[in-house]
């Protein structure tokens, strides 16, 4: 694996290998007073975020540090991007400084793929064989989020294959939804997207999933339900009448959570809008795996860095 840009780059065997590596790394850290592994000592990992982030940026930084890599955070607000430097020149500069891996989040769909193409083409000029990891590009994909969600489902349900997973809410603007649909389908899950017609993207009928507009009709059949964040910052129009109407139509309330099977798991990629997307009592309930997603995010991102930088077999 040279780069991680899309979940469609992973077949079932490759995705399972990453998840298995994450499990082994988690076990390797258990009981350690100092959570450090020497696996990536001497490697340099740079996070380059053009959008705000807490979970993804920090968990990549923690993942790198727990594996003894030198980790550096670059924010667009405090870099030469504010002076007009292009994405390509910023990436080339970081590669020339010796970055072994650049983890990028960018508001433009396809930005990570463009960076990977530049990194491969300009390898001789920079003197570094730099790996690129997509940490979210526009409304396109967020592959490590899908991997950590799959890891969480494996922990709570035992397996992903054969499970029915519901993804509810703002699918139109969600790179998390797209990555989850394709990865979970690759791993053998039956995925149903539940959203109003205004919040479904063009071409969603070609995705490997089923489409529904009625959340209450789906709940009793689900092994897990993921509520999505309503991405108001990406909306340029009225996609639903009001926050209250959205909560009534698609929010995961106490009553809706009670309709789920006893074993069903509740997920949310965060940050949550409590009371609109999900009731606070549901988010904090025993069936909620939201904090487990955050914990698994560190181990999954450790596994990604390991496979990219430590020479793990594909």
TrEMBL record:
GO terms classed as biological process: 'de novo' pyrimidine nucleobase biosynthetic process; 'de novo' UMP biosynthetic process; amino acid metabolic process
Catalytic reactions on record: carbamoyl phosphate + L-aspartate = N-carbamoyl-L-aspartate + phosphate + H(+)
Binding site for L-aspartate: 83, 175, 229
GO CC terms, sorted: cytosol
Domain Aspartate/ornithine carbamoyltransferase Asp/Orn-binding: 162-308
Span of domain Aspartate/ornithine carbamoyltransferase carbamoyl-P binding: 2-154
Ligand binding (carbamoyl phosphate): 55-56, 105, 142, 145, 270-271
Annotated keywords: Pyrimidine biosynthesis, Transferase
EC number assigned by the record: 2.1.3.2
Keyword presence, GTP-binding: no
InterPro entries linked to this entry: Asp/Orn_carbamoyltranf_P-bd (IPR006132), Asp/Orn_carbamoylTrfase (IPR006130), Asp/Orn_carbamoylTrfase_sf (IPR036901), Asp_carbamoyltransf (IPR002082), Asp_carbamoyltransf_Asp/Orn-bd (IPR006131)
GO molecular function term, any single one: amino acid binding
Source superkingdom: Bacteria
TM ranges: none
Function: Catalyzes the condensation of carbamoyl phosphate and aspartate to form carbamoyl aspartate and inorganic phosphate, the committed step in the de novo pyrimidine nucleotide biosynthesis pathway.
Self-association state and partner proteins as the record states: Heterododecamer (2C3:3R2) of six catalytic PyrB chains organized as two trimers (C3), and six regulatory PyrI chains organized as three dimers (R2).
Family according to the record: Belongs to the aspartate/ornithine carbamoyltransferase superfamily. ATCase family.
Entry protein name: Aspartate carbamoyltransferase
Organism field: Pseudonocardia asaccharolytica DSM 44247 = NBRC 16224
Name of the encoding gene: pyrB
């Amino acid at each position: 694996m040279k780069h991680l840009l899309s979940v469609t780059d992973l077949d079932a065997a490759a995705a399972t290998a990453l998840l298995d590596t994450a499990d082994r790394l988690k076990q390797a850290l258990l009981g350690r007073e100092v959570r450090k592994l020497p696996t990536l000592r001497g490697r340099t990992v740079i996070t380059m975020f053009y959008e705000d982030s807490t979970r993804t940026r920090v968990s990549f930084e923690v993942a790198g540090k727990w594996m003894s890599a030198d980790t550096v955070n670059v924010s667009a607000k405090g870099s030469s991007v504010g002076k007009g430097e292009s994405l390509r020149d910023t990436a080339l500069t970081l590669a020339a400084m010796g970055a072994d891996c650049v983890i990028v989040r960018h508001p433009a769909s396809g930005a990570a793929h463009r960076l990977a193409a530049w990194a491969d083409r300009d390898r001789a000029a920079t003197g570094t064989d730099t790996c690129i990891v997509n940490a979210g590009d526009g409304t396109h994909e967020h592959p490590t989020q899908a991997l950590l969600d799959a890891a969480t489902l494996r922990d709570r349900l035992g397996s992903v294959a054969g499970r029915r997973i519901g993804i509810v809410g703002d699918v139109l603007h969600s790179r998390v939804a797209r990555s989850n649909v394709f990865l979970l389908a690759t791993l053998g899950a039956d995925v149903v997207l539940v959203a109003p017609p205004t919040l479904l993207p063009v071409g969603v009928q070609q995705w490997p999933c089923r489409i529904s507009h009625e959340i209450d009709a789906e709940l009793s059949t689900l092994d897990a339900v993921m509520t999505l964040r309503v991405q108001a910052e990406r909306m340029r129009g009225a996609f639903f009448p009001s926050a209250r109407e959205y909560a009534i139509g698609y929010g995961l309330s106490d009553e809706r959570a009670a309709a789920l099977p006893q074993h069903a798991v509740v997920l949310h990629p965060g940050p949550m809008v409590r009371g609109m997307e999900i009731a606070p009592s549901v988010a904090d309930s025993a069936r909620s795996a939201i904090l487990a997603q955050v914990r698994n995010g560190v181990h999954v991102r450790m596994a990604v860095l390991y496979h990219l930088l430590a020479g793990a077999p594909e």
